[in-house]
Amino acid sequence: MRNYHTTLLFLFLLVSLPAWAQRQVVQGYVRAASNNEALIGATISAPEAGLGTITNEEGFYTLSLPRGEHSLQATYVGYTTATRSISVAGSGQSINFILEPASNELQVVEIQASSLRQKLNDTRMSVETLTSREAKLLPALFGEVDLLKTLQLKPGVQSSGEGTSGLYVRGGGPDQNLVLLDDALIYNPSHLFGFFSVFNPDAVKSVELYKGGFPAQFGGRLSSVVDVKMNRGNNERVRSTGGLGLISSRLTVDGPIVKDKLNFSVSGRRTYVDIFTRQINRLKEGDDDFSPIPDYYFYDLNGNLTYTLGENDELSLSGYYGRDFFGFNDSDFSFGFDWGNTMGSLRWRHKFNDNLYATTSLTSTGYKYNINNKIDIFSFKLTSQVQDYTFKTDFDWFLGDGHSLKLGAQATHHGFTVGRLNFESSDSTLNFGAGSTYSGLEFGLYASDDFVLSPMLSFNYGLRLSGFNSGGKTYAAPEPRASVKYTLNEHTSLKASYASMMQYVHLLTNSGASLPTDIWYPSNEGVKPQRSQQAAVGVSHLFGKGRYLVTNEVYYKWMHNQIDFRDGANLFVNDSLENEFLFGRGESYGNELYLEKVSGKTTGWLGYTLSWTYRTFDGINNGRRFPARYDRRHDISLVLMHQLNKRLSLTTAFVYGTGSAYSVPVARFAFQDVEGKEPSIVPIYEDRNAYRLAAYHRLDLGAVLKLRPRWGEADLTFSVYNVYNRRNPYFVYFEQQKDRNDEQTILGFQAKQVSLFPFIPSVTYNFRF
Amino acid sequence: MRKLFLYLLVPLLALLAACDLEKDIDVELPNHEPQLVVECYLEQGKYIRASVLESSGYFEDPAPPMVPDAEVYITTPAGKRIELKYKPVIVKSTGRFYTHTSTEILSGQPGQTYQLEVVDGKGRRVTGFTKIQPRVPIEEVEWKFNDEEEAYLLTSFQDDANTANYYRYMTHIDSLSGGSDRDFVTSDDLTNGKRVSLGSSYKYREGDTLIVTLYHIEKQYYDFLASISDAKSANGNPFAQPSQINSSVEGGFGIFTNLAYDRKSVVITK
């Protein structure tokens, strides 16, 4: 019976092939009329043939069309659609589009609707795209727009806790996300324990999140790819964009240095809570009951310089530098703690001919933290660091006949400094140190083919070969990737994908949060690389005159050689870390339902995820499977944006999630200890993560009011976080209830739940001129 | 270290302190099967005594349940089996509580092994071993004053390079009652064979009497104390992972070890 079906399907495919066989390649650029900027992700379609594609990072597209007459459309959000009538005959041809900015809302709406059709026809699945523009409309905690937190509103993506920006994608940890900023890896994408991401919304253009079906050009992490693209300087004039918020301000300046040749973009952002806390400390000086508030701030800088060498060559230089700083100073005690990422990347894009492009880059990226502690004559310094140098080259080769090849190679040198400690006193009575350094070489080689067999059937298949060498041990593995799309009819398509991923560097963390002191560590003799496999199937259906797209995906993910730690592991200043490791496996499976509407006055999405995530380790939970802390049975997010009139838009976001799996002690015993100690209560933990915190839910509201400044543009963005002041659980603990008279006798025990963020209103002023 | 992060959160939490972000909740816990909890410290020249209690569900009666039918035996290196009688007693001078006592006095030599066995009417059985540790002498206790009349304390001893050593360091102000001033465990991982100096911050004043104790402890005691500390800090710290108790005994919770220590008393003077 099964064979019969397969044969039928195959015959059906063959029937549709002949008309398809006679094809030619049409290709070209899509650029903005205002500043000649390449429009990335613009849709090019030939509606009659039912074919389409999107432009790449250079604004370039290639489309294979059957011979004959076609009307070719180029569309991009915020611009008018351009249509050209073309005749496809014996040879390929180049068709470029220059798009004018849209003059009315209706045009914008139409274009957005066509992006849903593009999504329906895309071979890729499990991909979420978000622009900085969208993220800025939505309500945000303290008014700080954050792209990573907005991604948490998409199905299959979860946060680790209240207000944090770490992404848990389909049961994977935040250390298993490949976070790329202009193709360069960012090791720790968060500030202040993950409450804010390192991406300044003004410096970022868009972010794409791959939850599965990973293309072969990506490798090195198990669970997701977060591909962030920085804004490039515009080619027209120098302009400024910025904002003043409750806790931070930001400013971006971009424009041409040499018109049509060289342009730049520089962004900076800094928080200023420390300015107020210092004032408070000064006012309270001399008050013995007041303990001074420590200093805390973070800042980040983004820069981009693009040089167009000629028609076929372009050089670009991107950089990121960010630091968090925490400090405390007293007459004989000083404490400083700083951490952050530094990234620099030089890229060269070369066009060999209309069918072959190459992008070659040299990247340096690193993450580092320093702790300096000084008590009178004693000083204590602790540093950990990871520093990478990467060479990477990628080729895009349009073969015609529906084939587009991607080939590439990557080599990375990793340097790790793990817990370098120095403890000394200035009178030399004390002096000792610890710490280890490691290095590793990581390689990747890949080839993939985007193959449009017919308007109905398209494939993307590829293979990545990856390898890693450290401490005399070499690992290598093939990572096959494949996805397929089959269009059932004009409104419905089916998709399936498989991806195998390897991860050779590991984040050592034994906490539920993203802490700046988490250490990166290489694979070696005793630490095997992590490995995952993921299979997913999905169906997409377009309805309501093409205004709504509903997508349902089912996935299953296996993870091997997952790393955890034995109970009581010491990751802090430990020269034999490997004795603390435990290795195990993980699995995650679930269903993601996603309904989106991108046109009309009201837009938004509704996501529902049903999922299970487990881990199994020999040394944890007596070897029995246990739910991961972020195992979330139900997860719902609803996002609505309504354009009330030309000046005012209203937004709302609602999230609901099953409570996190958490460990609470089930029992206790009294511990007397030796002479000279007071007796105490010791909690006994049994099954790992067996208790569920209360469900998480929250409603946020936002409004963006466009102002009418004398020059430029400006708006006020209002946000209300946690509108109905839900006290969501952050953690739970058990407290001893003592007799108030003697403060000794224990009367009983009480469970307490601690919440983090109550109702928080905020306002941000944004400008652009 | 994890406490540092809680401290780092202070400025943020201070902003939100006005809102009541903590509340009482009801937590339903699974049934806990009570286990024996044994504490037995052998000390040269002292009576051999132990306390045997039971663990209880977290929200049950706070008083630790007694186990009158528990039988406790200590076997000496010479093979003599000493029975400790059930006779709950609080020693007034030290405030220690024992459920099982004997009139035997310990006189063991470093390197000798003693054995513990506890059985009760429910068929529960707890066993353990301890190897007598040599005492490590405190070589020097010194202090230095700063300009604000505060002194820090430095305690030095010599680590034996040939063995893996574990220490517990404790200081008390004025007397041993009322809890310790400082208490921590350390290993010689970073200081093997060196003269080790353990310090404090500037916190002592002229005239303070300080009692400094250096225990040379077994690895099993070190692991037990570390797991106790981890388990306590996991309750109430959102960044910590839950930790199992690393008991030195099998069949229940608790510790069977010996205490070999050097103790010095100093008065801080200028």
UniProtKB/TrEMBL annotation, chain A:
A GO cellular-component term linked to this record: cell outer membrane
Database matches in PANTHER family: HEMOGLOBIN AND HEMOGLOBIN-HAPTOGLOBIN-BINDING PROTEIN 1-RELATED, TONB-DEPENDENT OUTER MEMBRANE RECEPTOR
Domain TonB-dependent receptor plug: 143-221
Protein name: TonB-dependent receptor
Keywords in alphabetical order: Cell outer membrane, Membrane, Receptor, Signal, TonB box, Transmembrane, Transmembrane beta strand, Transport
Signal sequence region: 1-21
Gene3D superfamilies, sorted: Carboxypeptidase-like, regulatory domain (2.60.40.1120), TonB-dependent receptor, beta-barrel domain (2.40.170.20), TonB-dependent receptor, plug domain (2.170.130.10)
Membrane topology: Multi-pass membrane protein
GO BP annotations, alphabetical order: siderophore transmembrane transport
Domain TonB-dependent receptor-like beta-barrel: start-end pairs: 294-723
Organism: Pontibacter flavimaris
Compartments, record wording: Cell outer membrane
Stated family: Belongs to the TonB-dependent receptor family.
Molecular function GO labels: siderophore uptake transmembrane transporter activity
Cross-referenced Pfam families: CarbopepD_reg_2, Plug, TonB_dep_Rec_b-barrel
Keyword Metal-binding belongs to the record: no
The keyword Protein biosynthesis is assigned to this record: no
